[in-house]
Amino acid sequence: MKLQISCQLDYEAYSSTPLILMLRPRSGSGQWIIKEEYILEPSVPITEYTDIYGNLCQRLLSPQGKFTVFTSSIVQTADEIDVAPNAEFVLIEDLPAEELIYLLPSRYCESDQLGNLAFQIVGNAYPGYDQVELIRQWIHHNIIYQYGFSNVSTSAKDTAYAKVGVCRDFSHLGIALCRSLSIPARMVVGYLHELNPMDLHAWFEAFVGGRWYTFDATQDYPKGNRVVLAYGRDAADVALATQFGSIFLLDMRVSVSVAEDVTV
């Protein structure tokens, strides 16, 4: 399916402020960028670099006063995500070197403290994909999705205790539980078609059977039509906007719809 995605950020800055944004999707597995635009109002110089996780990052200096960032893309997406029951656990010694970082505890994913819970959840399941799917199902059925009970400091351990949170919290818990079983796991942020209420979304991926697979504990079933913006160890690596000064987000508007016929 071709999706039209957009995000608008409305800021007000007390002084000129450095910003790093992560708002451009890139073509890759499961998605192809057909057309895009990136508008700054007022216009300011902007540069782009690729971070250590392969994400496209935009660097700029916002002006003082009102400032708007608008991005829009038309993306060819996969209607379904791949599933692979019985996909095998990958031995640590056989993992690609670049995936080893996703085995380690990180700021929001205390995998070294959640091993007992992980083993309770997976029981005698076949090591690998089946364990991750049991983790996803457990989170989906045991963690309440609700706004207002978590914040930017909430970690996987906090969510396991409180049993309430939002997509960011569901993802952190899934990542931490996978890592506690020595399964590499990473956080993903992006867009999901027909998400309700509409917003930017977070889910996680696990490395089993020699590749990454998508898992989303907020959904009832494996759902496609996703657009990835960024990957990282946890939310600290995939912030869509990082500011270094007195600038305030006044409003954010996110849209995902089926794209009309595209003329490039």
UniProtKB/TrEMBL annotation:
InterPro entries, per database record: Papain-like_cys_pep_sf, Transglutaminase-like
BP GO terms, sorted: proteolysis
Bilayer-spanning residue ranges: none
Molecular function GO labels: peptidase activity
Residue ranges occupied by any Transglutaminase-like domain in the UniProt entry: 159-219
Pfam family, one: Transglut_core
Annotated source species: Arcicella rosea
Annotated protein name in UniProt: Transglutaminase-like putative cysteine protease
Domain of life where this protein originates: Bacteria
Keyword Hydrolase included in the entry's annotation: yes
UniProt KW keywords: Hydrolase, Protease
